[in-house]
Amino acid sequence: MQVHNTEVVIVGGGAAGCYAGLSLHRGGAQTIIVCKGLVGKSGASIFAGNLVLGGRLLGNTEENARNTAEFLIKYHNQFLIDQSWARRCGQWIENVYYPELEEAGLYFRRDNEGNVVTSPGKIRSIAANVQGNSGVPFMDLRRKQLMRARILCLEETAATALLRRQDGSVGGVFGLNYITGEYIVVLARAVILATGYSDRLHARSTGTREMSGDGIAMAWRVGATLANLEMQWWHTNDIAYPPTWQRMQVYPNPMLGSEKSARMINSEGQEFFNQQQDDPLAYGPYTVQLKALAKEVQAGRARYDGGYFAGFDHCDATEVDAYTTYGKGFRQLGLRFPQDLVETAVTAHYRQGGIDVDTETMCSSVLGLYVAGGLGGHSNGLIGLATYDGKVVAEGVLGALARLAPCELPEQQVESERLRLEALLSRGGGGITPAKVKEKVRSVMWEKVGVEKDAATLRSALADIEDIRLDLLPCMGVKRTTRDVNYEWLDAIDAVNMIDACELIIHSSLERKESRGPFMRRDFPNTDNAHWLAANLMKKTENGFRFEQRPYELPFFQPGFVEKNNLEVAW
Amino acid sequence: MNIVPAPLGSGDARRLGQIERHDSLEARNSRLAVGDTLTVRVRRFEREGGADILEFRVPYQRAMRVLDALNWIAENEARDLAYRWFCGSKMCGTCAVRMNGREVLACWEAVEPDMTIEPLRNLPVIRDLVVDRSPFERIVASLEPWIERTAPYAGFPEPLLHKEMENASKALDCIGCMACYSACPVIGLGNLTDFAGPAPLVQLAQTALDPRNDPTKVGRALAQTGIFNCVSCYKCEEVCPAGIPIVSRVIEPLKARAAVLVPGMAKHPQILRRIVAARGRVDPGALVLGVQGFTALRNLPRIWRMLVRGKINPVRTLLGLRTAAASAARRLLS
User: Fold this and answer.
1) pLDDT in tens, A194-212
2) Which of A1, A368, A424, A554 has minimal CB crowding within 10 Å?
3) Residue B196 lies in domain
4) What is the largest CA-CA distance in chain A?
């Protein structure tokens, strides 16, 4: 077992974790990153398609600036956001984020006159190198910045438990390097969880393979309060086949350098969504699109798992290819581009909610445990917002470092975690496979906790998850009991976390008795601002949990109605 | 039978073999239908147990990719099969394998009715299809792939034209999958050369071909790459799933930078160029003398062999005779 001592340990190597690491390094704190995949290569940050321009950047008008803020608060978070935080974040993105990235070398796509190419419209965006692929050079740059700063990254290492001091505060991480099979312990003054928001908990999910709700499960086990876990976002037009391409999106956002964007067609050949006409803010169509699809599904002209189509058949190939990668999936499937449309399906995407944090410091309700990026319950993610979290959490931790004691090796906790993992490994391959357990969990979530749900499906999902926990988990075993590169062992570890995370999500979904944006309940179809313009907080108690509400303040934008059918609300 | 070949479209010359075999993306996607069964052989390897090829029968799924076939095998037949992947959609670059002898990204490539799947070459195999990425990472790190500015940053957006970034921009499409590194025959020679390999060079080109970078730093990095060992065989370009023109837009422009920034590296091509410009033809004797100097004369048996085979002509070399093509060559090379 490797034991590392450091000042701060970060779990996660995406946009938030990397920027937290770089900021802490600049602030003089010794930092180690534990990454379940490969820093800057796994995790959802690589999927960033384009980068939203906030404030008055690049010739944005006052109206553009206001639209971006409105988009973030209304369309991106359905008002479940601290608007003052959103304002601070927007100002930082305008003044610090883009200059920092460009100074470090990120290439924002120019034309031959040297102008940064933007998408037109009420909200504008730009791309790192090429639209649809911005996250790749962006995260590659972060990987190399960490390399340059010589920050230790423990890769392909799954954090499996948070370690606590005697007073209950968090001061370390236990993990498994699943390539070598070696256990690791990192002891620190503070732990930052930055494990992202696109967990693969549904049959179709946009996250990367390793994302299995670990952050939620580990934080809950040490008693962290959760917020708005039920607020699940969806991609509405990802290519339906092949199975592995769950995240191959036919981007609905405006294209760089063009007035056009993808359109969506139902099973009867009628267009039912075209961002130019149907999305009032011309940038954030995901929820608007989802609502349009829900109406088609209800009318029998589409299914959530397919039976509708998307594409660029109204565009020139040269127009699409000029600055985007949008044609690649079509061509790779042997389709004619742009003439052919492709069958699309819904995919579980961001989770707006997560661990409840103080947005001034990103500290959770547990001392020593901090959160950054999509895992936080404070906002829906975007790569810029996740990066801002990295900055804020670094400041929060640096400010508290003197008050946080180093952590002694908690031998009992380490031993019991080691035994838990060993038990998962040593059970032998006779029973159900971890892959099947994962498949069952995802299937329950897809069927009963999908886009549209109600109390009956949610209760039934809870019962199913409980059956999986009680009947299947005890007989889940792995075939090969050696330790190195044992992905089945990792799957078994993941399955336990997925079950815990799903249960929490379902309870939260039952608690929010309204529909809001992408959260659609058949039994409560209205958006209810009188009762639910509030954070849905899930708090751990001695004998389980209880829910509390915390209303949001509305200093800059207000919904302007009390109650209305969610499908009739623009956002 | 049509014996007159159809005219090639622009950029098709390198796909000539594919075109002749009627191998297109459309064809690759229409070889199988739901209900068909694939035969998949996977090379399994364990440090303790050695290597083995196992065969599986896998039902075809709609639009199936190689990764879907591996997932099916792991979920149904060989639960302990080790293969690496994260995103499943050509972004993370971790699932590259060799399928029927060519490097492919498993999540991106259509399955074939009969497939043999092996790990990438030129990297140590850890288990089954999982290779050790660290040799590649170490080379990339040693090239310090970041920019150092000679002038202070001008603020967002700084002056920059796409034209200046054209080649770097191609390199920025790299997902670090190492398909090219596996396909490279020079890397396959092992330690016989000091060639860094195509994938690290693409990583380097992202900043080395960026006009904002300090040329001294770029020269320092290029000096470690052994780039003139590249034989321009285009294998790397052929397999790149990101479609990066690795030879023409990465390696050739890097060689040109190296020739200017680290002239010693480019001795051979520069002397060749000088000879061709002066004489209108290649003169092997002059080339050997130019590159090796008079030490070349120590190897008398070799000189004799070359003389006998007519490879060198000392009279012509010493007199520096020019051919009629000299002026044209000078014009073309200037």
Assistant:
1) 999 989 999 999 999 999 9
2) A1
3) 134-151+163-261
4) 65
